[in-house]
Amino acid sequence: MESSATTTSMLISLLIISCSLSGCGGIGPGSPNANLTSDQTTVNAGESVNFDARASTTPDPTIIDEFRWNFGDGEIKTTKQGVISHTFQASGTFEVTVEVFNDEGTSDAASISIFVNALPEIILNLPDFVKTGQEARLDASESFDPEGGGIQVTWDYDVNTDSDGDSDPLNDADAIGLITKLTTTEARNVTGAVTVTDDTGASNTTSWTLRVISRSFRVVWEEAYVDYDWSGYLDQGATHEIQFQPGDGARLIEFRATLSLSRDILPITWPEDNFTLEVDLPSSGWSYSVITNQDNITENSSATIERNEMNPLPESGYTIYSDSKEAVIENLLSDPDGRFGQGTWAFEITALECDPDTPIDGVDPDQGNDWTLEANFLVLILRVSEISV
Length: 389
Hints:
This protein is mainly β. The chain has helices at about 1-20, 325-335; strands at about 35-40, 40-45, 50, 65-70, 75-80, 85, 90-100, 105-115, 130, 135-140, 150-155, 175, 180-185, 190-200, 205-215, 215-235, 240-245, 250-260, 275-280, 285-290, 300-305, 320, 345-355, 370-385.
């Protein structure tokens, strides 16, 4: 019996020596030692953190073959590599843990704390719509930092326009402040953005759309008569020119111009003199001239030029929609079908002949004449008034 026990003891000793030299399954050499670092420990919500557990160790001859990650926000992952990136969407302090396993199945864990700063909350108030030329009040004063810090508000008035010229229309700072005011002269939907930044540099951006509608105007063409008159004296062969703009801000419909010569009192100065009256409208490509005549010896010698239906009668008393009153007026007055007579009118009066020209004792009894020109216009004056809604 003693011999058998001695033999068994020797076999066990040999087995232990053999296992220590070559390694045996089921009898592990030791547990891993976990090590965890991160590239940053404070981030803003929505930002990523890179984690590194490659410095973890395990006793030879075992190897680390698995990393189990718990990010503290409900997400768990398993990798074969010791590096990983994770994005924290929610704010708060999170305990991130990595458990390192070796091929013997033993493990060790390491942890690190990450603080995630909450993004500012944006509360935006703006009108449903404004009219062109009307001031819109954009209000972000109720926005706040959940951690209680101060905030700064930056406004981009139009995300489709690069107002600062840096080739990026999405980063313009057109205004800074909790409240701003915007005026748009064109009817359209304006899409802008507002960015709220807290005192740690965390920012939140949201877009907004402001509906800009046209204004409504009442259009009335008011009929009016406009009269002009001039007078003077012309020596025979002399010319007098008159320039004016009777259709400025209106549409001309009819006109009549009459040149009258003063009657000579002494019969020796008869017959009546001859003058010409000419009207020229360069912008309309029209001109006309007449010579004075005397139908009755009891009347003054005169000449008349007249023209009717110079432009069509426009519709009146209706509502039109436009970005501005100025745009309505410009559009209606520049109607190509109603521009006749717009611009400068030029009247030219010439003393052709002052009778009689036969000198008496070397003196010409009629060397010139007094004249009077009267011009009468029927015009339509444009009245545009805004309608409040």
